[in-house]
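[job 0417] fold request received: glutathione transferase
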Amino acid sequence: MGVWSEVESHHFDQVASKLVWELGIKTLFGIPLDPKIVEENEAKLDSILDVYEKRLSESKYFGGDSFTLVDLHHLPSLHYLMKSQSKKLFESRPHVSAWVADITARPAWSEVLAMIPN
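[job 0417] inference complete; emitting structure tokens
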């Protein structure tokens, strides 16, 4: 599990945060996005998700058969990315897509989302 925690924090999160800023936050505030930053980071995310697809073809979650903090830490970024053009990168991979559907459907996550003002 430790290795996947490092992958999330040092690879996924860095790229996802830039995409969330460009495609989520900037859009929310009417700030023009930078297409070059989006393109560069979607290419990086594409490579990361290839690694994720391989791992998730071997187990339901990153830590094995149990939902762990590694999976949980993806949820805030996924919340924005799955509402953006980057959604296609997740949906094009069957194991990643199933994992996203599973973790975003967790009752506790639904409760968190219910606390966010519209």
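[job 0417] notes: Residues 2 and 70 are 8 Å apart (CA to CA). The domain at 2-114 is CATH 1.20.1050.10 (Glutathione S-transferase Yfyf (Class Pi); Chain A, domain 2).
[job 0417] exit 0
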